[in-house]
Amino acid sequence: MDLNALIIDDDKRNIFALKTALKSRGILSYGVCCAKEGLLLLRAPHTFNVVLLDMMMPELDGYEFLKALRNDDHFDHPPIIAVTARAMIGDRQNCINAGADGYVAKPVNIDVLIKEINSVI
């Protein structure tokens, strides 16, 4: 099965690193630096199997993004994995409670990320 990931992160370096790591595992990806752009892409007829969502972004953070997405009944969206550098006690559960399907802390261990992707798709 061909996998396609949407990466939403306000840091282009993080997008580049994730795209490179995913490509080495045979996963194609597309990155955007703005959560609002990510919402627009998910509402358009693209096919993404999973979303990797940075939780700490300006304007619209990951928690607000999840709320907006979960409140939109007009489409089915792919599983969302929260990716955060915060990584404090309780963050995983807070992200899951907010609507994420999975959680990975930064710096991202690609093996952990692949395992998380496989568990949510």
Overall description:
- The protein is α/β, with parallel strands linked by helices and 121 residues long.
- The protein has a single domain (3-120), classed as Response regulator (Rossmann fold), CATH 3.40.50.2300.
- It is 41% helix and 21% strand.
- The protein has a five-stranded parallel β-sheet, sandwiched between helices.
- The protein is globular and about 35 Å long.
- The model has no long low-confidence stretch (mean pLDDT 91).
- Keywords: Phosphoprotein, Two-component regulatory system.
Write down how many β-strands occur, each being a DSSP E stretch of 2 or more residues. Answer: 5
- Overall shape: globular
Number of helices: 5
Query: Which homologous superfamily in CATH is the superfamily?
Result: Response regulator
Major sheet attributes: 5 strands, parallel
Please mark out the parts with pLDDT under 50 across 5 or more consecutive residues, or reply none: none
Helix % is 40-55%
CATH domain class name: Alpha Beta
**CATH topology group:** Rossmann fold
What is the domain total for the residues?
Answer: 1
Which labels suit this protein?
phosphoprotein, Response regulator, CheY-like_superfamily, two-component regulatory system, single chain, alpha/beta, 121 residues, Sig_transdc_resp-reg_receiver
